[in-house]
Amino acid sequence: MSRRFPELPGVSSVAEAGVRAGAAPAVAAAVRHRGSLVHLGFAGAAELVPSRRELGPDDLFDVASLTKVMATSTLAALLVQEGRLELDLPAAAHLPGFEAAGKERVTVRELLAHASGLPDWRPYCDEVRLDPVSAPAFLPPASRPGDLGGAFARGRALVEGAVLREPLLAVPGARAVYGDPAFIALGLLLEKVSGARLDRLFASRVASPLGLADTFFLDLARRGEGTESRRRFAATERSERRGEVICGAVNDDNAYAMGGIAGHAGLFSSAGDVAALGQAWLDALSGRPGILDPAVAREFARRDATPASTRALGWDTPTEGTSTIGSLLGRGASGAIGHLGYTGCSLWVDRDRELVCALLTNHVHPAGRRPAEILGLRRSFHDAVAGAILR
After folding, report:
1. I need a surface site. Which of 43, 67, 138, 170 has the fewest CB within 10 A?
2. How far apart are the first and last CA of the chain?
3. What is the CATH number for 148?
4. Are residues 197 and 106 in the same domain?
5. Residue 61 contacts residue 268 (beta carbons within 8 Å)
6. 153 Cβ neighbours under 8 A, 6+ residues apart
7. Do 118 and 175 share a domain, yes or no?
């Protein structure tokens, strides 16, 4: 007997149309309104290659850069409210070695706001692929040794060293450039402050209190062990570096080089769980009790002072006319916060309408990104949600 889920009028048809139009092979969506789950839907195929497999309610998605807000920013907020992390203190005070290459003045706030002056991206994984100890992790699957613990430990050390050595491209606070190196550094910083690895910190401080049973980092050094080995995953893109179509491992090659646990990517989740995480932030922003302190949540949701930036701390805010939140949501006095993920996922929280929208897709499967198609699906989805809620 199939499970029945709540459904908003017209929203599932938008997801199905997106699948037919080639925006993504699979789409899962969850919407919460005034604290209640009002929509949960699934459409399309979790995998197209090597063979087609239909998406099921239990399939999990690589949420890519949603890791930045779901894990890294949320954990940072928790440590701030406990007084263990100071936003305006130099990051190097918490992360020894980060002061190298002129980064001694970069603050935690500037890292969170993408205003540190660090680059948007670097292929740190290429150094890992060339190292004799870590290189086996990047062999084609059939050629990889059974135990990759040493390879991933070495890869993590190499990426950490590269981030600590990374020079600035701009004066801190002068401009906002969205990127991954700042959040790789933040993940390392959180580990130093807490004394726990990022995946364990997220599990104990966020996933467990919020009941997010479907949300976790996949530890690639222990792949095939634990309950995660029995889960099913939506496939992502074909990786030339790894010689495989990725399924059940993080899509991002820098996060993969670190063993799947990083501050910028690595989290897997379900639409329902992503919406529940968004609800925790909405509750705090509305002054309701929960894991997040309302004053700290409001500080993280406030648009940063960096010139021309739309960024808050970790979060993004809507850009007039081009935002993926569509043409109807996020226009109230309090606005909205949200974030996107490279694989085709998104989370938006409309504060005035008490609305949380989670849209998960494997847009990049199997051949990579199609920006116009995924933008169209994202905007149409949020407009359909607005139409159903506001009518």
Report:
1. 170
2. 33
3. 3.40.710.10
4. yes
5. yes
6. 221, 259
7. yes
